[in-house]
């Protein structure tokens, strides 16, 4: 288990959010991919921020109430996201998870986004590595 790296459990098939994206488009991506947040990148895939479901909920409530139109991701994203390396041990990342910590981590290699790792992916890996836990079918599809 100690030799398992973030690169072994990360998702690299989800397109990140680009600066300037309308928040309604961001919400569609979050919902269709069943993730609670995604990195925001520039044209070179450098991580500039992170947008979560909570960011979207708050911004859409305010903009709807004030009839301000569709906000853009730049207005609501968190600008100093925590990132991890693809070489980081899954065990080390799991030990750092806790209350108030992100649920989704951008995985960055040489200043470029290469994927994301979620708490769900870490939990699935820990549960399947000899604990005797039988995973439900929907969790195996990720």
From TrEMBL:
Keywords recorded for this protein, A-Z: CBS domain
UniProt-listed Pfam families: CBS
InterPro entries: CBS_bac, CBS_dom, CBS_dom_sf, Diverse_CBS-Domain
Domain CBS: start-end pairs: 10-72, 77-135
Keyword flag Transcription regulation: no
Parts forming coiled coils: none
PANTHER family tied to this protein: CBS DOMAIN-CONTAINING PROTEIN CBSX3, MITOCHONDRIAL, REGULATORY PROTEIN
Protein name in UniProt: CBS domain-containing protein
Biological classification of the source: Bacteria, Pseudomonadati, Pseudomonadota, Gammaproteobacteria, Pseudomonadales
